[in-house]
Amino acid sequence: MSVSSDSGASELSSKPFAQTALADQPLDVSGEAVRGSLWTYLSFVCGKALNFAATVILARLLLPQQFGVMGYCLLALQYLSILNFIGVDALISRRTELKEAANAAFIVNLVTGALLFAAAWTFAPLLARFFRTEEITPLFRLLAVSLPITALGGVPEALLQRALRFKARLVPELGRSIFKGVVSVVLAWRGLGVASLIIGQIAGELVATAAVWVLVRWRPTAVFNRRVTREMMIYGFHIVAISLLGALFGNVDMIFVGRILGAQALGYYTLAYRIPDLVLTSTNTVVGRVAFPIFCRLQSDADELRSTFFSYIRYMSLLIFPAGAGLAITAAPFILFFYSTRWSPTIPVMQLIAIALAISSIGYVPGVLYKATNRPEILTKLALIKLGPAAAIFWYTTRWGITGVACGQIASAIFNVILDNVVVSRVLSFPLTRTLKALAPAAASSTLMGLAGVAAAPWLASHGVAGMVSLVVLGIAVYSVSLLVLSRDSIWEAGRVLVKSWRSAET
Fold first, then answer.
1. Is the pLDDT of residue 397 over 90?
2. What are the residues whose beta carbons fall under 8 Å from the beta carbon of 173, sequence distance 6 or more?
3. Helix orientation angle between 302-338 and 263-276, rounded to the nearest 10 degrees
4. Nearest to 467, CA basis, from 334, 358, 280, 324
5. Separation CA 467–CA 456 (nearest Å)
6. Backbone phi, then psi, for 222, in 5-degree steps?
7. pLDDT by residue (tens digit) across 340-383?
8. Distance separating alpha carbons of residues 208 and 203, to the nearest angstrom
9. Who has greater pLDDT, 19 or 161?
10. Is the separation of the CB atoms in 72 and 258 below 8 Å?
11. Of 421, 473, 433, 435, residue with least CA distance to 452
């Protein structure tokens, strides 16, 4: 392995950040959790705001079918990208021999990235044949260039996350979003069609990878240990198997939409999914990035682990449940104003998906906990159990088009959340009623908010931006009053922790 030419950079112990990244520091759990969530969520909000602005422009420049073709490519890329990070989670969770582990992860990522690019190039025609769209072959081969680029940044990204340097992650996240959006919009305006989206994706990954290497002073060295590499590979294969099953389960609806209903239907469905995904699923990702290293450090303290788990569940529901209800009641004016009437078929789909993803969020934190406590086999078994019912639901509901598939999302979400919470209650040894108690204030308040929005929508939804803003204000007011009446303590406790953590955050 090559050694950095920067004087002294090859020695991890000589760099302040390397010491932080590769050694555990004393941890204030509640403070770090909220501070990490704040910085990570700020990164998420800024990045997604930029992505949203680009999507609004692209929706007016490109056709639904072109979005659908890009959706085909991204579906396949997601599965390959999972293999790209076989050593990353293992590095974050590892507690000993960290220099050797970082080097091992770096080697594995480089080799994997190159092999995945070759695989994508080879199997692109098969992907095109499966989705009955020959245009996919050259486009997917071009998109595959992003795989080795992303693999190159895997270890620096893991070290930032391991050291809980969530504020620093703003730079690569924003860089990725800005360059991806700008390049895509400019090229789409110049008439490049789907290729504009793919080139923008590559540009964003290039910038993000360069940024993490600038931020992280770690450099690979000649320190190598076969035993450590083998241990990390075993752990990594477990995580990859889980992630592949999770991705297959998570995308089975899009696979059926694309295969059975075609590129145009997938384009509508993809855009309807985008905003709920940006707001809700990405929030889960934010929570997971912060929770994973914290859960890793609490592996040996069952009481603290259980307490931290419930903190995440409670505060996440206070945010995600009203967000899902709000997206559902504002979908019509939102889509008509931002995307134009061309995309009106996505309105009921977006409403249903927002509800489904809000429900699904409750099953996300248990998955992070299983990985952090070195019990990935639980996720594998759960994914296998969930896959069959999900495939049956989405295959059956395609007969009612994309709206039927979105209804299937809700049915699948309810089944999965019940299963997830039954299992985690046994793993952490707590009664299931404790989860229900933690979720009840947000669920009840969000339901009242949704009912108020449904009642007011016929009068407000047709008034464009003014109507949409009125619905948002109404929803916030109803939710806030309901939460004050039903669970005032939740608000004060959340506010107290938030203020305390924000004041002590890095400036």
1. yes
2. 43, 44, 46, 47, 208
3. 120
4. 334
5. 10
6. -85, 0
7. 889 999 999 999 999 999 999 888 888 888 877 778 778 878 88
8. 9
9. 161
10. yes
11. 473
